Amino acid sequence: MKNVAPSPAQPLRIGTRGSVLALWQAHEVRRSLMVAHDLPETAFEIVVIKVTGDQIQDRALKDIGGKGLFTREIEEALLDGSIDIAVHSMKDMPTQQPPGLVLDCYLPREDVRDSFVSHQFNSISDLPAGSVVGSSSLRRRSQLALRRPDLKLVEFRGNVQTRMKKLEDGVAVATFLAMAGLNRLGMAHVAKSAIEPEEMLPAVAQGAIGVERRDGDAIVIALLAAIHCTPTGQRVTAERAFLAELDGSCETPIASLALLNGGELWLRGEVLRPDGTESLADDIRGPIADGPDMGRTLAQRLLGRAPKGFFDWH
Question: Is 92 an active-site residue?
Answer without folding.
Answer: yes
